[in-house]
Amino acid sequence: MTQDLEEALGNHYSLMAKEFQLAYVKLVYFHLKKKYKNALPDLLKEKSIKLTITTGLEALGRSSDLNKLVTFFDVTGKLAQSAQLLGAKTDKLIALVSASLNLDTTGMFYTEEEKQQMQQQAQQQAAEQNVMPNLINQAGGLLKQQMQNQTEQEGV
């Protein structure tokens, strides 16, 4: 129900945030400064703080962020398979879904370079795992041969 209300009244929230609430906060801060004889620093003019008004479902807190993530991965998971079958670009699909949810996905996914580095590391680890037992077997064989040579020399 809240999502339906958000969709229906979303434009009104945005307009009120821009036109009324931000101006109201600035006006109240101005009157507080005047009342307390400039005891308050002028943070707005110094650009020490940046006022941002959050409205709608986003104002409800962190749970909305979690809901956005769950929705994002649910929707993209369902659409990705169909998109690949149809030959659609999944990166564009991801961008559209994240934009519609107002979700910032910057840094959420690995870049192509990071994927290549991870793949190279995995290949190196696999190669090391294959090489190590062979090295150990060879070293064991050399030690065994040295011990046999020593026992033969002592026996002679």
Spatial extent as radius of gyration: 32 Å
Low-confidence stretches: none
Instruction: Report the β-strand fraction as a percent range.
Output: under 5%
Structural class: mainly alpha
Element layout with pairings:
Blueprint lengths: L1 H34 L7 H4 L15 H25 L3 H11 L11 H44 L1
Report what the structure shows:
The protein is mainly alpha-helical and 156 residues long. 76% of the residues lie in helices and 0% in strands. The protein has 5 helices and no strands. The longest helix is centred in the C-terminal third of the chain and has 44 residues, at 112-155. It is elongated. It starts with a helix and ends with a helix. The relative contact order is 0.05.
Keywords:
76% helix; 0% strand; elongated; mainly alpha; 5 helices; 156 residues; single chain
How do you describe this structure in short?
It contains five helices and no strands. The protein is an all-alpha fold and 156 residues long. The longest helix is centred in the last third of the chain and has 44 residues, at 112-155.
